[in-house]
Specification:
It is a single chain. The protein is of the alpha+beta class and 171 residues long. The protein has one domain. The protein is built from six helices and five strands, in the order αβαβαααβαββ. The longest helix is centred in the middle third of the chain and has 21 residues, at 98-118. 29% of the residues are buried.
Length: 171
Amino acid sequence: MESSDSAIDEVPSLPELPAPPACGCALSMGTAFRISVESDAPRQAGRGRAEMIKNGELVDVSSYASPVGFVLPVALTRDVWNAFVEIRDNFPLMERDLRARERRLLEILLEARRAVRKAGSSDSEARFHLYRLTNKNERAAIERLAIRIGLLVHCGPGDHAEPVLTIRCSE
């Protein structure tokens, strides 16, 4: 059963999903997504994905991504996590609201899922946009409550050449 894209508060539990096929299907719905043989965008020479997650440079969100329909491991860069999920600047009430945090994370994953569905099977990246709340200084400078930010879902090899997804800023 597929969840409605507008039902952010409730994510139905899905049955056990099979392991991803060798072609690197990113979604349980069968959308193919080519695996790039290039290194994952935030990775640096000699540093693996597991180490980057351990160091906090990437945030593993696979447990949230699986019910949305992803069958590959998914991580956000720390920049995306801080800008969209862990809102702190001048929003102290939102920081304490864990449900709001989960809804923001779910919004990212649902938009990423839409972008992957639209991407062709020969693509290793899919782009999408979300609005991010501005902090007090940004609001004073640009007089806007939110700004539109481009994000990118990248499918690349993990530490053991398995397909993994990373969501990062596209700029």
